[in-house]
Design brief:
The chain contains 20 helices and 8 strands. It is of the alpha/beta class and about 450 residues long. It is elongated, with a radius of gyration of 29 Å. This is Signal recognition particle protein.
Length: about 450
């Protein structure tokens, strides 16, 4: 899409490209927004620098200001940074019984989140889950987990007084295997701040169960502290993911960005309240909007971009209706097809087009060679693309050679172009405005 958009900018923008000054001015505001959202200073600084390089020279969309454009670029970069390769809601819990270790500071929301995740696994994935509290320091902690378990209908390991966390972990592991559980979750004790005893204890437990997931639960409101906690836990224990709690509060969630930038670990879930169903899969778009706090600007730029796309589509359609369908249009169609899963995919989406797709395919259209067909068009001059009828033998030879293909390949492409051109004309004349529908889709 961005490729297509930048192509659109080239043709349609009057304001030209973002100057270094535009970018700098806009980024000053962005930096303030990031810091206000509790993004740590070094992370904010580095992020802004990265975006600066990226944004300078980019085209500005018609009807938005350079500043607005930068905000949109920043938003997209934020989403990019926050997004991991993995699906946040999908914990690695195959090979039962899979141990999940819950770690973090006291009061961060570990016990609550343990219950929430257990409920989710049970209800959405049909998993049989066992919960065990390793918090031997606060007498009420084990009862708290047992009560939550009863409330959500998930088993908890029977409480045995006088055991060490490692003893309990071993017992949970055994029970999980014997009882046919898919997952067992270990809710560890926290401290008010990081200390060596806590780390050692969690390390010992991890050594016993070899957790499939080690989820760090941190209070999303604590900003800088949360980042330090994440760094420390990751260094000492090795976390696999993060859960940010208290995101139902006023905080703007900058910790998410810092944490992601510092540890590189995915944010899995977001806690949005005390209730057992107040847990959501982490959504980068949403948090990015919240961190930046400039959602209206982002929406504005997106709308402007959409408008331009619509205008362009409209113009293209008008030309098609008049039977003007040149090689550039064909190339654009080919590129779009590549993105949409090939000819069959694109035709399959239009009512009554299945047969047409077959015809086009029979005419030598093969999804695998789209790339080569695009190369052929690229090998043509501007004039040739606009008027494919001028292509005689010598031109054809040159074009085919330029793309490393045979003239017969080019002839096939030209035949396909003629057929599509006819098809477009017919569709344009049709009463239903099918082409218009198709273009919108
Ligand atoms: P732990 O010490 O890490 O186990 O923390 P707890 O799970 O006991 O949670 C501490 C307090 O934070 C409890 O009162 C929870 O109800 C509350 N809490 C946990 N997660 C959230 C959340 O996402 N939003 C809000 N508003 N409160 C939460
Ligand atoms: Mg607890």
């Amino acid at each position: 899409l961005s490729e297509r958009l930048s192509g659109v900018f080239d043709r349609l923008t009057k304001q030209g490209a973002l100057s270094e000054d535009d970018v700098k001015t806009a980024l000053r505001e962005v930096r303030v927004a990031l810091l206000e959202a509790d993004v740590s200073l070094p992370v904010a600084r580095e992020f802004v620098k990265k975006v600066q390089d990226q944004a300078t020279g980019q085209a500005v969309t018609k009807s938005v200001t350079p500043g607005q454009q930068v905000v949109k670029i920043v938003h997209d970069a934020l989403v990019d940074t926050l997004k991991g390769a993995e699906d946040p809601g999908r914990l690695k819990i195959d090979n039962p019984p899979a141990p999940i270790l819950m770690v973090g500071l006291q009061g961060g929301g570990k016990t609550t989140t343990t219950g929430k995740i257990a409920k989710r696994l049970k209800e959405r994935e049909g998993k049989k889950v066992l919960l065990a509290s390793l918090d031997i320091y606060r007498p009420a902690a084990m009862d708290q987990l047992a009560i939550l378990g009863a409330q959500i209908g998930v088993d908890t390991l029977p409480i045995v007084k006088g055991q060490t966390p490692v003893d309990i972990a071993k017992r949970a592991k055994q029970q999980a295997a014997l009882g046919g559980y898919d997952v067992y979750m270990l809710d560890t004790a926290g401290r008010l701040q990081i200390d060596e005893v806590l780390m050692k204890e969690v390390q010992d437990v991890a050594a016993v169960v070899d957790p499939r997931e080690t989820l760090l639960v941190v209070d999303g409101l604590t900003g800088q502290v949360a980042v330090e906690v994440a760094e420390e836990f990751d260094a000492k224990i090795g976390i696999t993911g993060v859960v940010l709690t208290r995101m139902d509060g006023d905080g703007r969630g900058g910790a998410a960005l810092s944490m992601r930038a510092v540890t590189g670990k995915p944010i899995r879930f977001v806690g949005l309240g005390e209730k057992m169903d107040a847990l959501e899969t982490f959504e980068p778009e949403r948090i990015a909007g919240r961190i930046l706090g400039m959602g209206d600007i982002v929406a504005l730029v997106e709308k402007a971009q959409d408008t331009i796309e619509a205008e362009q589509a409209e113009r293209m359609m008008k030309r098609f209706q008049k039977g003007q369908f040149n090689m550039n249009d064909l190339k654009m169609q080919l590129e779009q097809m590549q993105k949409m899963g090939g000819m069959e995919g694109i035709m399959g989406m239009m009512p009554g087009m299945g047969k047409m797709a077959k015809q086009v395919q029979d005419a030598g259209f093969d999804d695998k060679i789209i790339t080569r067909q695009i190369a052929l068009v690229q090998s043509m001059t501007k004039r040739e693309r606009a008027n494919p009828q001028i292509l005689q033998a010598s031109r054809k030879k040159r074009i085919a050679a330029g793309a490393g293909m045979e003239v017969s390949d080019l002839n096939k492409l030209l035949k396909m172009h003629r057929q599509m051109s006819d098809m477009m004309k017919k569709l344009g004349k049709g009463k239903g405005g099918m082409l218009k529908q198709a273009m919108k889709g």
